[in-house]
Amino acid sequence: MSGQTILSLFVSQAERAPERAALITVNRALTYAALSTNVKTHARALPVNRQPVLIMTDDKADFIASFFAAMFARRPAFPLPQTPHAARPARSYIGAQPDEFYWGATSGSTGEPKIFARTHASWIASFAAHEAVFPFGEAETVMIPGALTHSLFLYGAVHALARGHTVLAPRRFSPKSVIKAMRDHRATVLYAVPSMLEELLAAGATKLNLKYVFCGGAKLGASLRRRFESAAPGADIIEFYGASELSFVSYVSTSHPAPDGSVGRLFPDVVAEVRLENGQQASAGDKGLIHISSPMLFSGYLGEPPVVAGEFVTAGDLGFV
Question: Which listed CATH number (3.40.640.10, 3.40.50.12780, 3.20.20.150, 3.20.20.70) goes with 6-319?
Answer without folding.
Answer: 3.40.50.12780
